[in-house]
Amino acid sequence: MTNDEHLQLLPGVPYVESPFFTEIFNDDYSDKAILEIARNLNRDGFAIIDFPDPSLPDLAQNIISDLTLNYDFDNRYGGMRTQDAWKSNPSVKAIANNSEILRILEKLFGRKPFPFQTLNFPVGTQQHFHTDSIHFSCMPERFMCGVWVALEDVQVGSGPLEYYPGSHLWPIYTHEQLGIDVRARPGSQEMYEKFWEKLIKSSGIERKVFYAKKGQALIWLSNLLHGGFEGVTDKKTRWSQVTHYYFENCIYFTPLSSTPLGGSVNYRNPPNILKDGHPEANFVLGKPIDKDILDFSTFLRNKERVNVALPPGFDPSRYLALNPDLKRAAVDPVSHYLQYGFNEGRHFK
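The structure assignment produced for this chain is given below.
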């Protein structure tokens, strides 16, 4: 069987996670650099590379200078990130739209990628390990990945990345499997955390910690458990950028607030940063989803959430003050918290 025949047999699975991986990325594969990345991703769920842009030091300095005033460094756990700074900062956008990263991802996944979200951090996140597949999913599944770039050296005490090699090979677990119904209330990553901890303990997978040098990047697959290491001992900075990528010809949705077979799907129309944020449509096997289906699912989701209450003490003004990126984006604080903020663990008091 030829390489092309293997690709045609299963086009709905990323090449890098295909059961035919060894036939697709064999020793005769012409691009040896991509071959090494592919093998690392297939085995471990992540790959470390040097970010392919010689101007990265200048981009990093521009980002740091531009965003520093956005943060209250005495309140390190309230709003210490900026979402979608690509809208106002050309350097953030340049990193997200890097043509070599896009080329690499297309070779690895077999579909054209597009960046849909950027996150910029001045310090370590201390975020519990998690998989992106519960936050950003698609059908066919696993056509999503992240690229994290160090904008300065990551030091001991500044909150390096942590990840669990091989965890990407596990099934994508959903809230239905955990026995949790999110139709009556917003779903949250927290409802998975004890399960993930038990899973790690049972599997025996050991945590790896990444002290990146400025300009190093980490590509990871959507189901890899990863997070921000809690070992922050002082007020060192850890400037970095995450760009999340989807791939063309998929249905895009948010699992934490969806119950597909129950009729409720929180569809996404992710903004394509390559097209200045133009929303991408949802496709099934090359054909767009009928608008009536999207409208009906939105109706069901909204109807199910009519009685959802905000948490005690929720103050819309305080929510925006603690999350300055949302204030700058002029979002409605109540709607944002119910649809996104609760899932993201945003501070509200």
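Interim note for the steering committee: The chain is about 30% helix and 15% strand. The radius of gyration is 20 Å.
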